[in-house]
Amino acid sequence: MQQPTGWRNPWLQLALSVVFVTTYELLLKRGALETAHLADRWAWTGISGLASPYVWMAILVTVLSFITWLQVLRYIPLSIAFPISQVVHVLVPLCSWLFLGEVIISLRWCGIALVSLGLAVVARPVAQLEEKL
Amino acid sequence: MTLVSFAIVLVALLGEVGGQLVLKKAMEISNAAGFRSRRFVLSFAAGILLMTVKFFLNLGLLQRYDLSFIYPFQGLSVIIITFAAAIILREKLTLQLTAGAGLISAGIVLVSIS
After folding, report:
1. Helix-strand-coil percent breakdown of chain A, rounded to 5?
2. Residue B73 vs residues A82, A86, B31, B69, B100: alpha-carbon distances, Å
3. In chain A, whose CA is at the least distance from the CA of B85?
4. Domain tally for chain A?
5. For chain A, what is the radius of gyration of the CA atoms?
6. How many angstroms separate the Cα of A20 from the Cα of each of A1, A32, A68, B3, B52?
């Protein structure tokens, strides 16, 4: 099936989906931090998080990530798209380190390196697949 | 971890794998038959339902266990989805793709337990 070009290009949509998921996690963490002090009977459900605009932005972003993911599924085999989407496990810790000042211990750096290596290995068959299309 | 909790972890994992497979199938149907076809609507709804089940089971597990204990199981979904896509959706699986998915799975487990 012919892949769409421009904004609807599934590889661009995959990249957007990954960026949206990463943004979602960071926004949610900020929102959770902002509302952690709120004492409420229902705080244990996480519902008090809705008091933060960051949480609402996160919800919007997660809807966008789902829409882009559906566009990815229309054209890219799941056995390729799903492993690549796991790049979030590299991006989220890196962004938590860069933007939230979280500490990453050496074992976690090893895990990040392992995921990156796996992504590099998956990327080669992708290049071959693209040649055929 | 009790036997019941372990069963919930397994069902949540199956929900994630099943949800992704069914949504993929739904989007393939939409390519061929459009968004108004009965088959698309049914499979899309089933995909959303499976994802929802997984979401709430996961939330329940998170209330009882640490994130670092529950999250590594999610790493397993990568390798399971890759194989399931090959077997059920008949996607072409190369040795390289399998090795890559295995490395990613192992990496996620390592990131989560550290």
Report:
1. 80, 0, 20
2. 16, 14, 32, 8, 18
3. A79
4. 1
5. 18
6. 26, 18, 9, 36, 20
Burial environment of residue A57 by CB neighbours within 10 A (0 to 12, 13 to 18, 19 or more) = middle
B89 min Cα distance to partner chain A (Å): 9
Within-domain flag for A1: no
Q: How far apart are CA B105 and CA B82, in angstroms?
A: 11
Contacts of B97 in chain A (CB under 8 A): 79-80, 83, 122, 125
Write the pLDDT tens digit of every residue in A56-115. Answer: 999 999 999 999 999 999 999 999 999 999 999 899 889 988 988 888 889 989 999 999
- Domain hosting B88: range is 3-113
Name the residue range of residue A45's domain: 6-132
**Residue B44 corresponds to which tokens in the numbers above?**
């899309």
Question: Which pair of tokens denotes residue B82?
Answer: 């890759």
Cα B75 from Cα A83, distance rounded (Å) = 10
How confident is residue B55, by pLDDT bands cut at 50, 70 and 90? confident
Write the pLDDT tens digit of every residue in B84-105: 999 999 999 899 999 999 999 9
Question: Chain-centre distance of CA B46, in angstroms?
Answer: 14
Residue B102 and residue A118: Cα distance in Å, rounded?
7
